[in-house]
Amino acid sequence: MWVELGEIFNRLSLDPSVRAIIMTGAGDKAFTAGLDVKAASNGLLSDGPITEPARKAVHLRRHITSFQDCISAIEKCEKPVIVAMHGFSLGLAIDLSSAADVRLAAKDAKFAVKEVDIGLAADIGTLSRLPKIVGNFGWVKDVSLTARIFGAEEALRVGLVSQVFDSKGDALKGAIELASLIASKSPVAVQGTKEILNWSRDHTVQDGLRYTAVWNSAALQTKDVQAALLSGIQKRKPTFEKL
Questions:
Q1: What is the structure's pLDDT at 35?
Q2: Domain that holds residue 195
Q3: pLDDT at 234
Q4: Which one of 37, 93, 219, 239 is separated from 16 by 20 to 30 angstroms, measured CA to CA?
Q5: Are 133 and 226 part of one and the same domain?
Q6: Percentage of the chain surpassing pLDDT 90?
Q7: pLDDT tens per residue across span 173-209
Q8: CA separation (Å) from 135 to 11, 64, 146, 154, 159?
Q9: Domain shared by 143 and 221, yes or no
Q10: How far apart are CA 30 and CA 90, in angstroms?
Q11: Cα angle vertex 235, ends 230, 237, to 5°?
């Protein structure tokens, strides 16, 4: 499932017919209930045939890195990714959603950075991305060290999600409306905006400005700029070619 998830996002990233992506969970109970602890205890987290510490460390590091790459495919995807969460949204839900661009939630959503309850430090992206999303290290340490469950309203208050809806259906409807709006924009502008925002997050302001200048020196040569400007003047809805 991990590998296929990464492959799907890598394909969607390059598909010119795709302009925005929505991820949601099947069923009414949960977006994801987190790690299958029983399966993990018999698999990757079991003692296994390798006993020499250094060799076991290399084996585990390779596995962890491959899992990280699968989730990072969401962030690296050129197209904006919207996550609509509901019900139990534990563990991996935070990894997945923090790699996405926009997070929405139903009011019944129950979140948790659950890994300390199973003897782990969250290792697939939460501890690296969540502090940069909410900008509050104290709160991140609170939920990460305690593994406590927090609700949609708290997630909204700290900025983990941008909107809360009455139900899963409403959250999905909101995600579709948002994705449709994004899809109506110039794909050159949308994909460039995602790239520059993600790059600037991890660099200084001056580095971000320089990268933006280099990026737009190519991107501004698109016909989309003229089409967008003329549509405003002519009071009509613009259309943009696939990218």
A1: 76
A2: 187-234
A3: 80
A4: 93
A5: no
A6: 79
A7: 999 999 999 999 999 999 999 999 999 999 999 999 9
A8: 31, 26, 19, 14, 8
A9: no
A10: 9
A11: 80
* CA atoms of 8 and 24, how far apart (whole Å): 15
CA-based angle 177:93:201, to the nearest 5? 75
Give CA–CA dist 219/240, Å, rounded: 14
Q: Give the CATH number, domain containing residue 151.
A: 3.90.226.10
Residues 35 and 72 in one domain: yes
Q: Which pLDDT does position 45 carry in this prediction?
A: 60
Give pTM, 2 decimals: 0.92
Q: Is 240 part of a structural domain of the chain?
A: no
One domain for residues 209 and 118: no
pLDDT at site 233: 80
CB 67 within 8 A of CB 44: no
The total of structural domains in the chain comes to 2
Identify the CA nearest to 128 among candidates 105, 169, 98, 93: 98
Is residue 160 located within the same domain as residue 224? no
Are 40 and 8 within one domain? yes
pLDDT band at 47 (very low <50, low <70, confident <90, very high): low
Assess whether 225 and 167 both reside in one domain.
Answer: no
Beta strands in 51-184 (DSSP E): 81-85, 88-90, 102-106, 110-112, 150-151, 163-165
